Amino acid sequence: xxxxxxxxxxxxxxxxxxxxxxxxxxxxxxxxxxxxxxxxxxxxxxxxxxxxxxxxxxxxxxxxxxxxxxxxxxxxxxxxxxxxxxxxxxxxxxxxxxxxxxxxxxxxxxxxxxxxxxxxxxxxxxxxxxxxxxxxxxxxxxxxxxxxxxxxxxxxxxxxxxxxxxxxxxxxxxxxxxxxxxxxxxxxxxxxxxxxxxxxxxxxxxxxxxxxxxxxxxxxxxxxxxxxxxxxxxxxxxxxxxxxxxxxxxxxxxxxxxxxxxxxxxxxxxxxxxxxxxxxxxxxxxxxxxxxxxxxxxxxxxxxxxxxxxxxxxxxxxxxxxxxxxxxxxxxxxxxxxxxxxxxxxxxxxxxxxxxxxxxxxxxxxxxxxxxxxxxxxxxxxxxxxxxxxxxxxxxxxxxxxxxxxxxxxxxxxxxxxxxxxxxxxxxxxxxxxxxxxxxxxxxxxxxxxxxxxxxxxxxxxxxxxxxxxxxxxxxxxxxxxxxxxxxxxxxxxxxxxxxxxxxxxxxxxxxxxxxxxxxxxxxxxxxxxxxxxxxxxxxxxxxxxxxxxxxxxxxxxxxxxxxxxxxxxxxxxxxxxxxxxxxxxxxxxxxxxxxxxxxxxxxxxxxxxxxxxxxxxxxxxxxxxxxxxxxxxxxxxxxxxxxxxxxxxxxxxxxxxxxxxxxxxxxxxxxxxxxxxxxxxxxxxxxxxxxxxxxxxxxxxxxxxxxxx
Length: 710
Hints:
About 60% of the residues lie in helices and about 5% in strands. It is mainly alpha-helical. The protein folds into three domains: about 40-145 and about 185-300, Growth Hormone, Chain: A (Up-down Bundle), CATH 1.20.1250; about 340-445 and about 545-665, MFS general substrate transporter like domains (Growth Hormone, Chain: A, Up-down Bundle); about 450-540, no CATH class. It has a five-stranded antiparallel sheet with strand order 2-1-5-4-3. A two-stranded antiparallel ribbon has the order 6-7. α5 (about 110-125) packs antiparallel against α12 and α18 crosses α26 (about 585-600). It is elongated, with a radius of gyration of 30 Å.
């Protein structure tokens, strides 16, 4: 009885489709009017989606550019910053399946608009701690803080101990110290990023499939390439905004800037990280406005109006009438949609090409997420650059190369009419040569800065082990110094000392940034020393470092372009290896897997690995370990690049497996593969006679009409 009712439903549904088609044919006189709304509608949506991609990419990249600023402002290690960065992906994880599956059957543009509002609220929340925390405090010897009394840095007599140092020791046992430090305010940054992730969820799966559904199929790849290219422009402005804000002091507008005694070159410097989030939040609000006025559906292009010749049906196995009736009903109840969930999930995971490509993407995005998240930190620590310059270089040089690479991939796909097999080869080739170029960066690093007691001994020889104990030497034995302080000075011998006290300095002259220390006993005993004076701030990296930094930039740009060329071909492979009615769901599962298995863990374990290369940890005012002040350059280079290259190699192996499966399933002209992987043969005549209900596909020489044969 149930079967008969379902068959009647399908029969009724199939019969009701015909009048709709006939009515569309009857209105051929108004086709010129329909064409304009179609083309204009999809282009308006394309422009709106591009702006949203720009907004979300800007705020996301700005977060990457403020990683070191957040780490210093809240005095937390890189591993915890990685957790904050990964909270964005956790937000995606919470609702990605629901949005991608049910959202495809609801009003997609309005769901995207609502997501923009949520995304902007999260961005504003990230900036809020700045207005609730106290002013930023950094470590400085009291005589450098515009004092008229010059106190000896080497405190031989405890009666000379400055009041600020006594207050600091008492603060460690003060019950209200933790509240004063605002040590847990980073939770607001985490929650704001989590909310950002929730708001961003519908943009990719619903936006891309909306374009693929209503765009002319010859233009689908180009449109997707345009959206992704505009999305890359967002990070350009995001990193440039990060560069600008990093130059501004964190408490700008709240303190007298003349009283600030540190410069952007100092590792304790914190820029106005919060300012960019306010700007990004406003842009996200503006980006969501157009979607509230866009229709749920757009008119189909002429090439897609006839269901029997639809581009989707020319690429995929036509479902039987029963499945078509169930999948393409316009008004489906939530319960019926939920009933289809697990069969759809089983269908996706039964597709070997989809699974293998998913594994390849997870491995590659692990390497890319980790590399991009800590790239500003790597440039700062490896090449001695400021946060502002690191962000400027990434935004102005690397990101445009990525944008050009993604656009080139889409253009190559369209111009040379590359099929699915060719797209797989192009994606694999770009990954292989990109990671091969990345291998050369191992030779383009800088040596450790000479820091007495950490990287070299006080006599100039290379440092051995147990860094903390080595901070003390005979030259500063008579001084009452703390090993937890980080207030570096640069000696005349080119060696950096952790503090003026540990350098054994007996006197100082001047104030603020112009303070000069004299009679520094540890500076005088160094082999190359000619005097015993020192100035505020660390010494610069070696003479070879600027040249290495230039080489690094050149190879980095070429690598970014090469890896990005495979972006659009990979997207096309993903869209064409699945059934048409599962596109939104497949993209949602794909995004979910990338978020869970790459976006969340990669910044965390990259951060943990980077923390292992730290030579000198800062200490919080209330006790406990703070942010890292100095890294081992060699160890940092091998950990950062080694993890990236290892994960990229795993991705290449999975990509080779995808290519192998596709080639294995390639068949003679009269043999095709169905969407569930079953082989079948069909003559040309039977294809023509039974096209609408056949299990065979029509082959074509160029990719827009070429079936996946999967």
